[in-house]
Write a structure and sequence with these properties.
- It is a single chain.
- The chain has about 180 residues and is α+β, with helices and mostly antiparallel strands.
- The protein has five helices and seven strands, in the order βαββαβββααβα.
- The chain is about 30% helix and about 25% strand.
- The longest helix has 14 residues.
């Protein structure tokens, strides 16, 4: 197999959207630091939304981006927490994958903390192939060729190799 067409894990992002600053935001920050061992970054609102009483620039969530071996370890634990089953609709056309964990106590190695309470988080996985840098560089940036982009089916094959079962829409409807 050509090493330039092999799909690899670029990064994973763990995200908790709280919607407001204060104690909930501090709890979410503690949660992500316990799960990953890294320092989370606070995210801010891009637009104002009067129905949710959110102004532009308000602190509304926290996130952590992981790369390398730590990203792969956290991804393995995240997949275990959803019983090695992902929905096919979780896969985007660009090869990215997102899934949620409803309660952090489902995550392996985590115990209930009364200070944090019950809270869940999202895991967003970004996959790539070698050569992606040509679209990101500042000087002489080029459009990424189709064969160097990760397709939805390639992303599904990557996760099947990790031992993940993919649930179709029909199987989802039967389960609920």
């Amino acid at each position: 197999m050509n090493k330039f067409t092999a799909v690899k894990l670029e990064k994973i992002t763990l995200n908790v959207g709280v919607g407001e600053a204060g104690q909930k935001l501090a709890n979410a920050k503690d949660l992500l630091s316990k799960v990953t061992g890294e320092k989370p970054v606070i995210t801010h609102a891009r637009k104002r939304n009067p129905s949710f009483k959110v102004r532009k620039g308000d602190e509304i969530g926290v996130k952590v981006t992981l790369r390398g071996k730590t990203a792969f370890d956290v991804l393995k634990r995240g997949i275990e927490s959803v019983d090695n089953v992902l929905k096919e609709r979780s896969f985007a056309s660009g090869g990215n994958v997102s899934f949620g964990i409803k309660e952090y106590i489902d995550f392996p190695g985590m115990k209930y903390d009364p200070k944090i309470g019950m809270m869940g988080f999202d895991i967003c996985v970004t996959l790539s192939k070698a050569g992606k840098r040509i679209s990101l560089r500042k000087i002489n940036a080029r459009r990424l060729p189709l064969k160097q982009r990760v397709s939805r089916t390639e992303a599904m094959e990557f996760f099947k190799a990790l031992g993940v079962k993919l649930m179709t829409k029909e199987e989802e409807e039967e389960a609920y």
